[in-house]
Amino acid sequence: MSVHLLVDFGSTYTKLTAVDLEEERIVGTSKAMTTVKTNVLDGFNNAMDKLKNTHPDMKEITAISACSSAAGGLKMAAIGLVEELTVEAAKRACLGAGALVNTVFSHHLSRKEIKQLKNADIDIILLAGGTDGGNKECILHNAKKLADAKLSVPIIVAGNKDAQDEIEEIFEASNIEYYIVENVMPKLKQLNVKEAKEVIRQIFITKIIEAKGIKKAEEQTGEIIMPTPEAVLIAAELLAKGHEDVEGFGELMVIDIGGATTDVHTIGAGFPKRSEVIFKGLQEPFAKRTVEGDLGMRYSANALVSLVSPYEFKQYSSYQHDIGEAAKKRHENVDYLPESDEEKEFDRALAKICCDYSMSRHVGQVEVVYTPLGNMYYQTGKDLTDIRYVIGTGGVLINNENAKDILREVNQKSNKKLELRPTDPIFLIDQLYILSAMGLLGQKYPKLAIKLMKRHLE
Predict the structure, then answer these.
(1) Calpha distance 416→386 (Å, rounded)
(2) Superfamily of domain 74-207
(3) Is 101 helix (H, G, I), strand (E, B) or coil?
């Protein structure tokens, strides 16, 4: 048996992982700058040359699988009725499919919002609204608005099934590319995103990668089967659950600190751990992903430091120079690598902020309500206090000797007692940058993917 090559066309680097299926081992890894602005195959070939040079005895490559977040990855808009319900359900469908969701609207679309949609850099619109048998007036209004706008992006309809026939007539008359799937929230607070996620992936495979100029890579690398964040989420779920006789790790978290975003993936039910706590709000997915577009080490550095005051920044670092200038330098030079101890210290501080703030936005919280009968406790979101493993990935963690110190920012904090953060997790590092590759491998060889992750997460 020969080598299976896993390829991740990332926004900054194209990463290769070669796996010998017979010997059940990773032969080697390599990376090169992604070259989507010229020919995406240039970066792939550069990484391939490195891999062959470092492993000249490597067996013949007979199978290639690929994922991609190049050219900005998959970008979506989510539209729903109530912000805390169908809008949130629509967002979770998009995020679970590996998309970045920067455009979100609730209730009736206005002319101003339609104009924003026209000007937004998005690949797909997910239109939700109403439980099955519930309100359909709002989703019909929004469908008419979208049809009149004659947008050129596909629209996935995932709302009240009672409105589907009328929406179909509206979009057919306007020559809109649309897909009708099951309601993402068929009953109040019930999440149902599986079909929507599958259609998002199919549109990504058949249309979006071609529009971004990545399609030409398929002739050499094989089909690009999913967005990179979805591959990471699949890997995390495999590692948590295990497969057949290969045991998993149990509940875990992956935090990926990148140049533009910080992604957090958690695998676990997240139900209340205490009997006196009552869950409220939308049902949480077992495999949950959130993306923070203002928390990044390079592209988003300016936005990141604007979140904290100079006093708050000192809680993360002893860096003495102008933090605004240091952030600006990174924003304007996204390939910048720090050399001095001071500059490395600033990067560590940025990474700590990414960890801390992304965790506050991802985890559940407990709200205390005072009543005549005593205190009532309500939980929204996931309780992650018992998470066993926190896995760090992304360049700043992989290349930092103090990665564990950075990851400790996900833990419970005395000034954030109502946040249901991990209490005493084991920290692991994706040192070889293989999580997305293992998500791809796990599509056909789940047991092997789990074994390799167990072996190489340090």
Answers:
(1) 17
(2) Flavodoxin domain (3.40.50.360)
(3) strand
Report the side by side order of strands in the sheet with 13-20.
25-33, 13-20, 3-9, 61-68, 224-227
CA distance 5 to 200: 25
Domains 74-207 and 246-429 share a fold: no
Partnered with residue 226 across adjacent β-strands are: 67
Where residue 61 falls among pLDDT bands split at 50, 70, 90?
A: confident
**Domain 246-429 is in which class?**
alpha beta
Please give the full DSSP string across 196-251, using - where no structure is assigned: HHHHHHHHIIIIIHHHTT-GGGHHHH--EEEEHHHHHHHHHHHHHHEETTEE---S
Domain ranges of the chain: 3-70+213-227+435-456, 74-207, 246-429
Q: pTM, whole model, 2 decimals?
A: 0.88
Residue 251 has pLDDT above 90, yes or no: yes
Q: Pairing relation of β-strands 74-80 and 124-127?
A: parallel
> Strand, coil or helix: what is 414?
helix
| CB of 162 closer than 8 Å to CB of 136 | yes
